[in-house]
Amino acid sequence: MYRFFENKVFENEIELSEENSHHFSKVLRIKESEIVEVCADNGIFESAFERIEGNNIILKKIRAVGLKNESKVNLTLFQGILKGDKMDQALKQATEAGVSKIHPLKLKRTISNISGKEEKKVQRWQKVVESAAKQSKRDYIPEVTHPLKLEELKDLSGDMDIIVPYENQLGTTLFDLKSLSNNIALVIGPEGGFEESEINFLREIGANIITLGNRILRAETAAVCSSFSIIYYLESR
């Protein structure tokens, strides 16, 4: 069953955006009798074609289906900004794994310079996340915020348990953390990794520094491996 996201309330009918209408009729070529799902501001609903107004598709509500594809784990990803397509890949796969929100991080070893281009970058990253959410049938689209400095993480993390995979950490793994809540902040470094001063800051604010094993993972690989492992571990308790 195909799924569409609309940032509006679904009453008895809903008008799909121009982009979704085009996708509905020209790309997917959905039949008028076919049932689709719409994720709206007030829930998820099965719906069917009603009519066309101008270039836009109007759907009629059939029934509410409720949230069904989201984890009980609220995992916020603080991702060190990566160069080019690597950032797209990290955000795409982390969305598929189930992260709830994404904060791009400006770190000392960040290679990509996005000064003056932040607005366009965030718009691009949000599109990548939206596409991944649709493909993986998420119940909502995770938000990508404007880039942050590491120091801002202290206030944003609130009551979240902070987890930081670090290549120089020995011994402590995810499975050694026995008292984690379901509210997690995952911090992933950029291509060059973290500087020691950044790790020291994270320790000072109570972060759990862990190893992902003996092999060194690319930053974009670490994001999805860590996201999936944390969600699976906490869901399995």
UniProtKB/TrEMBL annotation:
Name this polypeptide is given: Ribosomal RNA small subunit methyltransferase E
Location in or out of the cell: Cytoplasm
UniProt keyword Methyltransferase, yes or no: yes
Membership in a protein family: Belongs to the RNA methyltransferase RsmE family.
Domain Ribosomal RNA small subunit methyltransferase E methyltransferase: 70-225
Keywords: Cytoplasm, Methyltransferase, rRNA processing, S-adenosyl-L-methionine, Transferase
InterPro entries listed in its UniProt record: Alpha/beta_knot_MTases (IPR029028), PUA-like_sf (IPR015947), RsmE (IPR006700), RsmE_MTase_dom (IPR046886), tRNA_m1G_MTases_N (IPR029026)
Domain of life of the organism encoding this protein: Bacteria
UniProt-listed GO biological process terms: rRNA base methylation
Function: Specifically methylates the N3 position of the uracil ring of uridine 1498 (m3U1498) in 16S rRNA. Acts on the fully assembled 30S ribosomal subunit.
Enzyme class: transferase
Cellular compartments per GO CC: cytoplasm
Enzyme Commission number: 2.1.1.193
Catalysed reactions, semicolon-separated: uridine(1498) in 16S rRNA + S-adenosyl-L-methionine = N(3)-methyluridine(1498) in 16S rRNA + S-adenosyl-L-homocysteine + H(+)
Organism (species): Anaerosphaera multitolerans
GO terms assigned for molecular function: rRNA (uridine-N3-)-methyltransferase activity
Primary location recorded for the protein, binned into one broad class: cytoplasm
